[in-house]
Design goal:
529 residues, mainly beta, 7-stranded mixed beta sheet, 6% helix, 41% strand, binds CU-O-CU linkage, binds copper (II) ion
Amino acid sequence: MKLNWILPGLLALAVEGFAASHPGNELRQPALFTNDTTLTAANGSVAVWPGFPVSVLTLNNSLPGPTIRVRRGDFFSATVSNVLGEPLVLHWHGILAPSGMDGIPQSAILSGQSYGVRFPIRNRGGTYFYHAHTDALTGKQVYRGLAGLFIVDDPAEDALGLPSGTHDVGMLISDKRINSSHTLAYSPVMADLMTGYLGNGVLVNGTPEAWLAVDKSRYRFRWVSASNARILKLGFGDGRSFTLVGNDGGLLPAPVTVTSVTLGPGERADVVVDFSGDAAGAGVTLRSLAFAAGGMGMGPRQGLQLDVLNLHVDSTNTVPSAVSATLGSFTPYAVGNALCTRTFTLTAGGMLHYINELQFDPSRLDFTVPWTELERWEFVNLSTEYHPMHLHGVHFQVVSRSSGALRPEEGGWKDTVLVSGSETVSALVRFDAYPGRFILHCHNLEHEDNGMMLNFEVAAPGRPALALSLRSPGYGLTWPAWACDWTLDSSPDLIQWQPMTDAPGYGAERMSVALGVTCSSHFYRLRKP
Ligand code: C2O
Ligand code: CU
Ligand code: CU
């Protein structure tokens, strides 16, 4: 076989010959999506296991969906068409989109309908993805296939000389329950609603037992953790180190050498793996490594070792590329500049999951965030489960984890952060992309479908960030620091204004009062003194 490298005329033949010689299936790459065309979600049949067409959900007849690849500054434009026989909305995870096109559950359309999205790509270059986000159906729709890669290319990356072209490989990684009948059925039982729907095998870009032939060069692997619930600890069977170059929001300020990265559902890592030291004919397995995760029950658990991808060094070819010492631009926020702290408790009870003791209600708005003010958001996990917490509409900086140090893959810009059992994790958040309604939720899709999600609103520039929140008893009204000298008006006017029930108080640099609400309609007014 090796002789074929010096016989270029036979190369195509040789690669085919090799293909047949590796056990498993060659890593599939979905087709590229063409801007201004339609993404159709449908019921379909795909031979995930060769020779076994299985009933799945497809996007443009593909599982996973076509890869969206857009340059920063260009427009992304698509028509989403739904012929699933049930509601659907698609969300562009990590991509900054106007609220109405972001794909929150409230934007779902019925089967037979379609909607258009068109917005400029304002994100930094990096690895994002897209997936179904339909209220109470996200777990099923994503598990059965409605997801795809969304890659942003960036002029700022071009000069760095990172591996590109065939040496830049997107990998949408998700675990599935694999059985001898080769089906992708989604049928969670009670216990699955607590742990999430964990699988016993991994698909990469919809490929089971995937393999990839590499040459003796560096490769950029874009890892998207796209399981419903599985936490991946990605590393190699031979323990080799590799270079972490980016995560959720694009390139890190500098490369970091690691031997594994831990990614909860929704998180991403861009890594560079160097095969120049491998002998031709050698191979190595990318795995989700075993880790201690506690947990009980009969089904698959967190922390199981699972094979992800077999890499085979099939060519002595080398392609030049570089990993420079400085990568992305990054300015850390200062914790001391945060104007307030918002606390989110994460709890579980029965088969349901709660944020701040509330279940998701599409019609309830929990708070309003002031435009471009820095806030500290603190996730307090009062349960023993993992909760990968995800924010729409922003990238944030993780600043602390109560159980220890942050991992290298938690540096830079994040949109999802893994909160382990009984941990508190803090992030600095500043909304400056789009005003409007966005959501915060757990990216364990069973938790999300079972209530672990809330709505918030980013106030428009120059608009007061008034927020009415449920307290017990009654309601609380808060307004931003810059309006702290304002008072709640209770003087009679054309309509009957209601008095507040306690004196205005400062809490975390916010003016806050309690409102005694005893019947349905009340009128309050904020007034400059
Ligand atoms: Cu990847 Cu709100 O989701
Ligand atoms: Cu998202
Ligand atoms: Cu959760």
